[in-house]
Amino acid sequence: MDDQGRGSGPRPERGEEASPDAGPPGPLPYEGVWRFSAPAVEASVPQARHAVRDLLVRQGVPVSDDVVHGLLLIVSELVTNAVRHAAVLSPTLAVEVAVGAEWVRVSVEDSHPYRPTALEADHGRTGGRGLLLVSEITREAGGWCDVEHTATGGKVIWSALPLTVARAV
To answer: What is the mean pLDDT of the chain?
Structure first.
């Protein structure tokens, strides 16, 4: 996403034209991008979760409780994966929260080059389903997620959710 936490802003209603003199709408008070780093240790998992929750509250992001719960679970899974699987090559990780007018995106970046994929559910295994869980939470909320390589050879795993949960009709 290129817009660095800035949403598309309000759009004219159907059939209504935007005023030619009106400039682009400014960001809403809760929009922005926040990034923090943490050591790749287990204690960083709850710290990252609490930091994200506190940020959403402090900024006054109008996010539903369902989305907050999903985001916090996603943050826990992504930070846990970075601690368990990337710490050997990435002693620190970065967590980023980007909030737009209608969505919130969380991402975790590490320096390990391996690009994981969501595994199929294997009920006999006790682990290895974190990205599958992230993918399902994201899909059910009406969002999207991906894994991308960074310019420095690491990866960033992100999930973007609408501020309100998409309801099945």
So the answer is: 83
